[in-house]
Write a structure and sequence with these properties.
By secondary structure, this protein is of the alpha/beta class. The chain folds into three domains: 6-170 and 366-382, Rossmann fold; 180-363, Rossmann fold (3-Layer(aba) Sandwich), CATH 3.40.50; 403-553, no CATH class. Helices cover 38% and strands 13% of the residues. It contains 19 helices and 17 strands. It has helices at residues 19-34, 67-79, 102-106, 126-138, 147-155, 180-186, 206-219, 233-239, 242-254, 269-278, 295-302, 313-318, 332-344, 346-359, 365-389, 407-411, 435-447, 458-472, 490-493, and strands at residues 6-11, 39-46, 58-63, 84-89, 113-117, 141-144, 164-166, 192-197, 223-228, 260-263, 281-284, 307-309, 325-326, 422-423, 426-427, 525-527, 547-549. The strands form four sheets. Strands 3-2-1-4-5-6-7 form a seven-stranded parallel β-sheet, with helices on both faces. Helix 4 links the parallel strand 5 (113-117) and strand 6. The longest helix is centred in the last third of the chain and has 25 residues, at 365-389. It starts with 5 loop residues before the first strand and ends with a strand.
Length: 553
């Protein structure tokens, strides 16, 4: 197989405002940075009625409700000879019932597909289960970001373990810094900062954190809760800013207006990292356990921030063993108590910071890109093997494979092993033998022992095995520490066995026997390691076959 040259990512893309758009863009950029020789493009899903000023990395956009555009995208990928496609899957970003339109695209692709599942449902509807199963069938590999995803794929969808890869959510690789400088730049100097960021929606549990603020302020009067992020576009489309207004109303009812700040912005990565850097505690008070991944959690953990979170699936894994603090769902009292404990216990908080930063180094985008590239290569191998095993449907059912012809192969063998080269159909004895050819011959001999095959003679299999064993066994050393190895040339292999005072060598029993090679004959060189010889040279020395060979063959 050739090396990877072109990869396409199917999913949302910035500047569309959603977590998958950010993830797809980050992964595409990480691949491009890690391997600049690879062309990494995005096939961007565009939601109904919207238009975006996509960057140059977006090679094609697909309107989610237009099935013809899925067909057009498949044609684009096939004719563009992309080596692999990486699908970013979430049910809600594709058209059709349970996002079934994406199946039209996948069913037409000729290259391997690696699917990243951002959601794995424990209790899918009938339609969701059917779509998920067909996506898995169309994929050479599926990627999840938490071990819980692997468990659900195996138990709920019966996906074999060897088809599943667990690769965590990527994070920017930035230095570990104290929060004071960022606080000063952003106008929060002298405050104990609690942060939540992301697109606002009711399942984020922001109201629980607001209800916890009075108890926090009793112990840390300088505390401030910063809520960074625009309202989710789908929520704005359906309800306007009703949810944000309800949160602000709750702040006023509790009298904590001076301690809760809403920043209604969808920020770029540089600004986001600045805000994370300034916080003392990061909180994700989400209300739904069935959250397979959280980019906000990964980013904050990766910058070395103490995290207080409800026990949704991703948080349970990432924050286990004291790497963070888990609190019950919807429990304002527990939320306030744990955050206040961290804000008033500086040594504990700082130790948690350092531990989170150290653990997260394997999650940097560079490392994640390397793992995805490895999965792409593995997926290509899987597809290649499937292609070899797939019957050719174009052949008539009555057609049978012709008998295997091994006459030339047998003519290339003698009682030492398989010759390395031939002149047309005539063995070229001057080049002798090499280990890799005889090892392949041994593999062939083993394969032909399977039922239904015509096996090679056992003595021939034994010769190949003896040759490989001979090559593997280190040659003995002389008193001076030199190797007194074995002959590897065809000429030497045909010599009669030498006298007891000469170095051991391979021999061929011929009648009549040839004259024995002198112990240190002129023109015979000693080789004690792998010595590459130019193709024009009459002999090649093979690994571990240290000893004598003749440059004249």
């Amino acid at each position: 197989m050739t090396t990877l040259r072109r990869i396409a990512f199917i999913g949302n893309s910035l500047p569309r405002r959603c977590g998958i758009a950010t993830f797809t863009t980050d992964l595409q950029q990480a691949i491009s940075t890690s391997q600049p020789e690879i062309e990494a493009s995005i096939m961007a899903m565009t939601d109904h009625g919207q238009a975006y000023d996509y960057p140059a990395a977006v090679a094609l956009q697909i309107k989610d409700d237009n099935i013809d555009e899925y067909v057009r995208a498949a044609d684009f990928l096939n004719t563009g000879r992309f080596d692999a496609v990486c699908l970013q899957h979430e049910f809600g970003i594709f058209g059709g019932e349970a996002g079934a339109h994406i199946l039209v695209l996948l069913s037409r692709l000729t290259m391997p597909v690696v699917t990243t599942l951002h959601t794995v449902l424990a209790e899918p509807t009938t339609a969701q289960r059917a779509v998920m199963q067909r996506i898995v069938e169309a994929s050479s590999k599926v990627v999840v970001m938490a071990k819980k995803g692997r468990e659900l794929l195996h138990t709920v969808y019966q996906v074999p373990d060897d088809k599943i890869e667990v690769i965590p959510h990527g994070i920017p690789d930035v230095a570990f810094v104290a929060p004071d400088a960022a606080k000063a730049r952003l106008g929060f100097a002298g405050r104990s900062v609690i942060l939540t960021f992301g697109l606002l929606s009711p399942n984020k549990g922001i109201e629980v954190m607001i209800d916890a603020m009075p108890s926090i302020l009793k112990r840390r009067a300088d505390a401030v809760y910063v809520v960074l992020g625009a309202t989710h576009p789908n929520l704005v489309r359906d309800q306007g800013e009703a949810y944000r207004e309800s949160l602000m109303s709750r702040v006023r009812e509790l009298g904590v207006e001076d301690h809760v700040v809403f920043l209604d912005h969808f920020v770029d990565q540089t600004t986001l990292l600045e805000f994370i850097s300034m916080c003392d505690v990061y909180v994700t008070p989400y209300l739904n356990e069935a959250q397979m991944t959280s980019g906000t959690l990964a980013y904050s953990f990766g910058l070395g921030k103490p995290v207080v979170s409800t026990p949704y699936w991703h948080a349970c894994e990432l924050l286990a063993d004291g790497r963070g603090v888990l609190i019950p769902f919807g429990d304002a009292a527990a939320t306030g108590r744990e955050i206040a404990e961290l804000l008033t216990d500086t040594p504990r908080r700082q130790a948690m910071c350092k531990r989170a930063y150290a653990v997260s180094r394997s999650m940097t985008w560079q490392r994640i890109a390397e793992r995805y590239l490895s999965v792409f290569e593995s997926a290509r191998q899987v597809q290649w093997l499937k292609a070899l095993a797939r019957p050719d449907k174009a052949l008539p059912e009555t057609r049978t494979a012709p008998d295997m012809q091994i006459g030339h192969f047998l003519s290339m063998c003698d009682d030492t092993g398989l010759f390395q080269h031939a002149v047309h159909s005539v063995p070229d004895r001057s080049h002798g033998y090499c280990v890799d050819d005889n090892a392949r011959a041994l593999l062939l001999a083993c394969a032909l022992n399977n039922p239904g095959e015509r096996p090679l003679p056992e003595f021939l299999t034994a010769r190949f095995a003896a040759f490989v064993q001979h090559a593997k066994t280190p040659a003995p050393k002389t008193a001076t520490g030199e190797r007194c190895g074995r002959s590897v040339s065809a000429r030497a292999a045909m010599q009669a066995r030498r006298g007891a005072d000469g170095p051991p060598s391979c021999s061929r029993k011929r009648s009549p026997p040839r004259k024995a090679l002198p112990r240190r004959a002129p023109g015979v060189l000693r080789c004690s390691a792998w010595t590459p010889i130019a193709r024009s040279s009459p002999m090649t020395c093979t690994p571990a076959m240290s000893g004598w060979f003749s440059p004249t063959g």
